[in-house]
Design a protein that fits this description.
Distance between the termini: 5 Å
CATH topology: Lipocalin
Strand order of the largest sheet: 1-4-5-7-8-9-11-12
Number of strands: 12
CATH superfamily: Lipid/polyisoprenoid-binding, YceI-like
Shape: globular
Structural class: mainly beta
Number of helices: 1
Order of helices and strands: EEEEEEHEEEEEE
Radius of gyration: 17 Å
CATH class: Mainly Beta
Largest sheet: 8 strands, antiparallel, barrel
Length: 172
């Protein structure tokens, strides 16, 4: 079955340590994704994110993230994810192992999450939800900006936490 992600009811976000004392949270406003579901189980995930749609609620920081220091959106406008395999963990829990491509670099990433029950929405469509998380090292994807503070710590941490909350509708 072909399920399309409902972007109005979905969130693709991230957080990263800032100066070692707090976290900056952001999200991508534009993305497309589809998931495969067979017999009530997740079988496939395919996503494309518009890297220029990054939003951390501060224009100066967002413009820096779009620059060659980070996403380099002029040369790498999209971030992609394609599942390789999905491992059921029971009770709706899963691990999705797939290829994350960012800034021209592809690395294997494992998303861990849960799938909701499939329900019928008020319009009569089948709908389901997915929640998933992963942690990546930004330097693995050539996001190597490395401003150092006077105390020696990094302005931007290396570990980036990814957070996905997705609703999908059966377009079968």
């Amino acid at each position: 079955m072909a399920w399309q992600v409902d972007p109005v009811h979905s969130h693709v976000g991230f957080s990263v340590r800032h100066m070692g004392v707090g976290s900056v949270r952001g999200r991508f406003e534009k993305f497309e994704a589809s998931v495969g579901i067979t017999d009530g189980k997740l079988t496939e995930v395919d996503a494309s994110i518009d890297a220029s749609s990054v939003n951390t609620r501060q224009d100066m920081r967002d413009n820096h993230l779009k620059s060659p220091d980070f996403f380099d959106v002029a040369n790498h406008p999209t971030i992609g994810f394609k599942s390789r395999r999905i491992e059921s963990q029971g009770d709706g829990a899963f691990k999705v192992v797939g290829d994350l491509t960012m800034r021209g670099v592809t690395r294997e990433v494992t998303l861990e999450g849960e799938m909701s029950e499939i329900i019928k929405d008020p319009q009569g469509n089948q709908r389901m939800g997915l929640s998933a998380q992963a942690t990546i090292n930004r330097k693995d994807f050539n996001l190597t900006y490395g401003a150092v503070m006077e105390t020696g710590g990094l302005v931007v941490g290396d570990r980036v936490k990814l957070d996905l909350e997705v609703e999908a509708v059966n377009k079968g």
